[in-house]
Structure formats: C-alpha cells, structure tokens
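Data deposition worksheet. Section B asks for the primary sequence of the deposited chain exactly as it was used as input, without tags or linkers unless they were present during the calculation. Section C holds the resulting structure in token form. Section D is free text for depositor observations; keep each observation to a single sentence. Incomplete worksheets are returned to the depositor.
Section A, Depositor: J.P.
Section B:
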Amino acid sequence: MKTMTATIVLTLAVAAGGAWADTVDNLLQTYATQGAGPANAAAAKAMWTREFKPADADKPRSCSTCHTQNLQQSGKHATTGKAIEPLAPSANDKRLTDAKHVEKWFGRNCKWTLGRECSVQEKSDFLAFIRGS
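Section C:
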C-alpha cells in the first residue's frame, strides 16, 4: 500500500512539474520571438530585492516586499495584508501553470513595483529565476 501511495504521489508531482515546465518554456519562446535574449536568472535575482519608487508610491518597493526573499515561503501584500502563496513551483504546484495568469500578474506586479511594464527580457529573466527557486 505504501508503495502504491508513493507511486501516485510521485506521478502527480511529475505531472504538475510538467505543466509548469511547458508553460514556462512556451512563454520563454514567446518572449524570445519578441526580442528577449537568453533568460538570466541571476539578473532577476538581483532585481528581486532592488527597490523602486514609482511616482504613485509613498515609499520604495521591491518584488521581495510582498513575495519575500525566499520564493518558497508565503508572502503578504504590502498594502492590503492579504496572504500570498509561495511563488516557487517547488513549493506551490499551481504556480506558472497558466500563461494568461502569469501575464496578468506580470502586468499588475511590474506596474505596482517598478511603475511600468516589465520588458520581455525582464519577464524572461524572472521566469528563469522563479522556475529555479
């Protein structure tokens, strides 16, 4: 019975990993056709804690302001206090599985944090960083 349960859990984990891997690969290909170079996880990691002060912000913000420095941990929205589930697919199998959802949140989070849209290179870099976390 334990072997069967372990097999089922492993199968589900592999299937979930495949879903987000396919989504990320497809988005990276799309960004490449839009002008992004190779994804650079190190660039996104450096940008993750860099503070920005959009014109409408009272104080500087970074990605880690809400998502924390450890993407495997839960975060909390800086304004609303609403809980944010871990961003890393290794800790949250729902992450990076729906391209429309990823794009929606890039739009919202980039505007809120940076005060502008993310470039396709930044999106590509962030996906590589998040995928590896």
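Section D:
Residues 1-18 have pLDDT under 50 and may be disordered.
The first strand starts at residue 75 and ends at 76.
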